[in-house]
Design a protein that fits this description.
The chain is built from six helices and eleven strands. A hairpin with a 2-residue loop joins strand 10 and strand 11. The radius of gyration is 17 Å and the shape is globular. The longest helix has 21 residues. The chain is of the alpha+beta class. The strands form three sheets. The protein has a six-stranded mixed sheet with strand order 3-6-8-9-10-11, with helices on both faces. Strands 5-4-7 form a three-stranded mixed sheet, with helices on both faces. A two-stranded antiparallel sheet has the order 1-2.
């Protein structure tokens, strides 16, 4: 029996074939993959985005915070990926340099946030590597369910926000838990705690 290998899509082909109006999709290993987060996951992402937007407006910063930005990344073996962070912070001057273009970017954004779910290893391993490779200055992994392994979260596992800052091409990480205020270089006056992020999920009311 002869099998014909399925052609892996490039990022440009992914954009051409993107199923508009049918949800959120990423390009993963050459295939279009649908992303379907839970409502609690969306609650956390929305809370963080609105907190960023409050800072952008308050301080009149040159940023745009959005939940629908597609970015082109590249894996260690050169495979193009299409990622849609749960929250993206982009320089407004970059975004508005071509307002007739669609939402995909090939330039590094300022900050990416991934809220973890059952495929948490994507955020901790694959996206971490891709975002560092692209040159994203700041990357948050928001593990509000403490769903990752103890290798990352320790024992006992507790909800944690990991903030990675790009220093000389390599990510340096700081972890925050409980009533810790999350420290961001992009938003140095941000006043939100891990506890507030976890509570925004509404999971505690179940």
């Amino acid at each position: 029996m002869v099998t014909t290998p399925v052609k892996k899509l490039t990022f440009a082909e992914f954009l051409e074939q993107y199923p508009d109006g049918y949800g959120i999709f990423e390009l993963v290993n050459g295939e279009i993959v649908r992303v379907e987060p839970t409502r609690s996951h969306k609650n956390v992402a929305r809370f963080i985005m609105l907190s960023f937007n409050d800072e952008i407006r308050r301080l009149n910063l040159d940023y745009i915070a959005d939940q629908t930005v597609l970015i082109r990344t590249v894996t260690a073996n050169g495979q193009e990926q299409g990622r849609n962070p749960d929250v993206s912070v982009v320089k407004a001057s970059l975004w508005n340099s071509n307002v007739t273009a669609y939402g995909a970017l090939i330039e590094p954004i300022q900050l990416a946030v991934e809220v973890t779910s059952t495929n948490w290893d994507d955020d901790y391993v694959d996206k971490l590597d891709e975002y560092q490779r692209l040159g994203i200055a700041e990357y948050w992994i928001v593990d509000y369910l403490a769903i990752a392994s103890r290798n990352y979260l320790g024992n006992p596992k507790v909800p944690t926000v990991f903030v990675y800052h790009l220093i000389e091409g390599q990510y340096q990480v700081t972890s925050f838990r409980g009533d810790d205020k999350i420290i961001s270089l992009t938003f140095p006056e941000l006043e939100i705690t891990v506890e507030q992020v976890v509570n925004s999920s509404q999971m505690g009311k179940l």
